[in-house]
Write a structure and sequence with these properties.
The protein has 117 residues and is an all-beta fold. It is 0% helix and 52% strand. The chain contains no helices and eleven strands.
């Protein structure tokens, strides 16, 4: 199983980034997918998750800091989960990790997001 995260980078406060996580080696459509992040010196924290859905509607949930600014989505045809991040703040600076939840949980390698003030 591989989860390849991409899309991180350096952005000014107020800007946007779209993270992608391409999965392989698993039955993507059957896996809950999500994102965590870890800032320097801090514990990894939950960002957002999206359920397996019915092909049209997918239940999602967000950490409080992400509500209204971040949107998680998935494309089962591309085995990819996305995290659209808007109105970014310096405190959003972290390494963002995607994960898949199933009989076994898997983690991607992370992508660095740096928000300058």
């Amino acid at each position: 199983v591989q989860l390849q995260a991409s899309g991180g980078g350096l952005v000014q406060a107020g800007g946007s980034l779209r993270l992608s996580c391409a999965a392989s080696g698993l039955v993507f459509s059957r896996c809950e997918m999500g994102w965590y992040r870890q800032a320097p010196g801090k514990q990894r924290e939950f960002v957002a998750t999206i359920g397996t859905g019915d092909g049209v509607f997918y239940a999602d949930s967000y950490a409080d800091f992400a509500k209204g600014r971040f949107t998680i989505s998935r494309d089962n045809a591309k085995n990819t989960v996305y995290l659209q991040m808007n109105s970014l703040k310096p405190e959003d600076t972290a390494v963002y990790y995607c994960y898949s939840a199933g009989p076994t949980d898997y983690w991607g390698q992370g992508t660095q997001v740096t928000v300058s003030s």
